[in-house]
């Protein structure tokens, strides 16, 4: 009988698992969801606030009617990543829809750069406003492999803007840098 006594005591000490307190669990889940919703609301308010700060930026130019008459130097299909203040790769510009990522179709002619963005605001950069093009790896928080981003710098009112594009075929980027550089040098020559 002495051998049964320890087993009996061991069995008597075991407890069943605690019953889950569903009200506490549901309260935590609802609290977490409210916190996430609050964070998203704050992010949206920040986006609107940034747009109000940049409200002094003039309206974007639209494509001229005679643009289709010009001979396209280059075309590109890919992604528009963002626009930032030139030289400040994290200072995203959200005014006039420039902060919205989208698909893009670029057309470069002697008149300028036509940016067509399905689902976002299209805009046109006159050739006189183009400043430079370069290959880069980061813009507005988007980081890509070295040279994976085509950045075109242009003047809009008193502001210099860097706009980032990524072609579906990254090998096209260098041709764009060369073409924009050539166009800006000939535009500067005729402006003098």
Structure notes:
By secondary structure, the protein is of the alpha+beta class. It folds into two domains: 23-53; 65-191, PH-domain like (Roll), CATH 2.30.29. The chain has three helices and nine strands; from the N terminus they run ααβββββββββα. The protein has helices spanning 4-13, 22-53, 173-191; strands spanning 74-85, 102-108, 112-116, 123-126, 130-136, 138-139, 142-143, 149-156, 159-167. The strands form two sheets. It has a seven-stranded antiparallel β-sheet with strand order 4-3-2-1-9-8-5. A two-stranded antiparallel ribbon has the order 6-7. The longest helix is centred in the first third of the chain and has 32 residues, at 22-53. It is elongated. The termini are far apart. The relative contact order is 0.14. The chain crosses the membrane at residues 26-43. Pfam families: bPH_11 (PF25362). Keywords: Membrane, Transmembrane, Transmembrane helix.
Task: Provide a compact summary of the structure.
The chain crosses the membrane at residues 26-43. This protein has 192 residues and is an alpha+beta fold. The protein has helices at residues 4-13, 22-53, 173-191, and strands at residues 74-85, 102-108, 112-116, 123-126, 130-136, 138-139, 142-143, 149-156, 159-167.
């Amino acid at each position: 009988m002495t051998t049964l006594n320890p087993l009996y005591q061991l069995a008597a000490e075991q407890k069943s698992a605690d019953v889950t307190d569903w009200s506490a669990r549901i309260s935590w889940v609802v609290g977490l969801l409210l916190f996430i919703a609050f964070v998203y609301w704050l992010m949206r308010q920040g986006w609107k606030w940034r747009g109000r700060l940049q409200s002094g930026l003039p309206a974007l130019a639209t494509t001229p009617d005679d643009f289709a008459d010009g001979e396209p130097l280059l075309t590109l299909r890919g992604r528009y990543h963002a626009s930032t203040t030139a030289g400040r790769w994290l200072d995203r510009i959200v005014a006039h829809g420039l902060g919205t990522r989208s698909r893009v179709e670029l057309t470069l002619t002697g008149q300028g750069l036509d940016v067509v963005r399905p689902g976002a605001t299209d805009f046109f950069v006159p050739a006189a406003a183009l400043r430079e093009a370069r290959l880069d790896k980061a813009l507005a928080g988007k980081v890509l492999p070295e040279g994976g981003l085509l950045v075109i710098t242009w003047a809009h009112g008193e502001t210099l803007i860097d706009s980032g594009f990524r072609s579906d075929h990254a090998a096209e980027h260098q041709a764009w840098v060369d073409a924009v550089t050539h166009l800006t040098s000939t535009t500067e020559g005729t402006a003098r």
